[in-house]
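Hey, why these numbers?
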Amino acid sequence: MNGSLSRRRLLTLGAQGFTASFALGACASNPPASPDDPAALVSSADTTLSNFLRDPDMTWFRNNLPSARGVLIVPAFVRAGFIFGGGGGNGTLMVHDDSGNWSYPAFYTVASGSVGFQAGASVAEVILMIRSQRGADAMLSNSFRLGADASVAAGPVGTGAQVQTSDILAFSRSRGFFGGVSLDGSVIAPRDAWNSTFYGRQVRPVDILVSRNVSNPQADGLRNRLSSNIQS
């Protein structure tokens, strides 16, 4: 039995190593923001939002953004694997009040894993549109799992797209080939160190998104882009 377990362990480690190699390759051609620079991530999030708003396949996203409770923008979600797969990325979460005023961003990480037929690697721009109070409340927790603590479905794209009833809709623009992975089951958690770095003191997501007692002008461009879309 020990021999069988050892062989299984080796297979698992080999698959994970293959996944890591693909992820590194994907990042090399399109590197995400520096891991210790939340300001760079905010700039990348602004670019990603601009890309979505200009994309002709994202008409539903553009038209329904004003009614969303919030958006989590992940400029570079890396997915890779062979049988065992995984993915992840850093993102900025912003919510707006009843008057349409957007909060400053709170920083989060998204991580996923799956088992099943899949091969290849890709880097995708991902935006999670929060559509319900349940989805908004989940974002304020220490961590939560999509599909368990809040329902998630693929966001509709193209002309005449039909929307599913869900707490969160996931929209993506991918570069590269990948099959067999969805965000269902992904874990989302705040990046407390990034939040503290960006705002210059210890803060929690609730301080940024609900109390709104911190600000940073480096995020004004992103906030203005969101506000302009709502007003238009």
About this structure: Residues 2-231 form one domain.
